[in-house]
Amino acid sequence: MGPASVALLWLALSSAAGAAEGDDSPGAAPLSDQDQLEQAVAEYQSGRWDAAQVALTLLMSDATVSQPVQQEARVYLGEVLYFRGDDEGARKIFEQVLSIDPDFQVDPFRHPPEILAQFEIARSSVAPFPRPEPVQTKFSSTLLPFGMYHLRHDRPVMGTTLLVTQAGLAAVGTILWFGLLPVEERTYVVGTPEEQSIKLRNALGPVCGWTAVGIYMVGFLDAQHDWRADRTNGVAFDVPIGLTISGRL
């Protein structure tokens, strides 16, 4: 083989080698985050689970990858782990997704129903239990008459009973008291029917008043019991120190 033939053969081999290495040339554009994710998903869907797991792990741990792609990589990694029988590992991955974004939603068109169900189970374990709003119940509210405390704290039967009895007795006592204010209404002749009527009204007034006070005390003590029970259950209160001591007594 002459020198010319050798030169032509070398040029042909060089061209073939250059064509074969064209895809890895320095000028080729690097794959985007989304393209890398799609490649990893393709590996998973083709049954090459080991390669997919490695690629997805690299994506989710690479700080230069955008968060949406990282989150999708985590979901797919959890899916791979779940279908490989590692339920615990999948749950931890899903919980990691939700710890980053509690409102994250799995795309039902890209993931099977089993993964959606497992993801929602993980959401229920990550989501904190709802805490009741603190109720700023003051001790002074237990001192209110006419069952106002009970009516404000979802105890309508007790509140209505206290309201009707206290208001009724207070009204009767007030009418009797005002009715005896005029002098002629308090003057009577011994042995006449007016004597018995005036004495009866004089007796009924204090009875109504003290009965109203007694019913008020029943409502107050019941409100105290309810107030202390709420405080024991961890409800926030705004209570003056002196009133707290007197309430316990």
Write the layout of secondary structure elements.
Layout (H helix, E strand, L loop, with lengths): L2 H18 L12 H13 L3 H13 L5 H17 L3 H14 L12 H14 L21 H5 L3 H24 L3 H4 L6 H40 L8 H8 L1
Helix pairs in contact: 2-3, 2-4, 3-4, 4-5, 5-6, 8-10
Distance between the termini: 119 Å
Which parts are unreliable, with pLDDT below 50 for 5 consecutive residues or more? 1-25, 235-249
Shape: rod-shaped
- What is the H/E string? HHHHHHHHHHH
Biggest β-sheet: count, sense, barrel? none
Number of domains: 2
Percent in strands: under 5%
Oligomeric state of the chains? single chain
Helix tally equals 11
Number of strands: 0
Based on secondary structure, the structural category is mainly alpha
Structure explained in plain terms:
The chain is mainly α. The chain folds into two domains: 31-126, Serine Threonine Protein Phosphatase 5, Tetratricopeptide repeat (Alpha Horseshoe), CATH 1.25.40.10; 139-248. It is built from eleven helices and no strands. It is rod-shaped and about 120 Å long. The chain starts with a helix and ends with a helix. Mean pLDDT is 76; it is low at 1-25 and 235-249.
Compact summary:
The chain is mostly helical and 249 residues long. The protein has helices at 3-20, 33-45, 49-61, 67-83, 87-100, 113-126, 148-152, 156-179, 183-186, 193-232, 241-248. The protein is rod-shaped.
Question: What key phrases describe this protein's structure?
Answer:
249 residues, mainly alpha, Serine Threonine Protein Phosphatase 5, Tetratricopeptide repeat, 11 helices, disordered N terminus, disordered C terminus
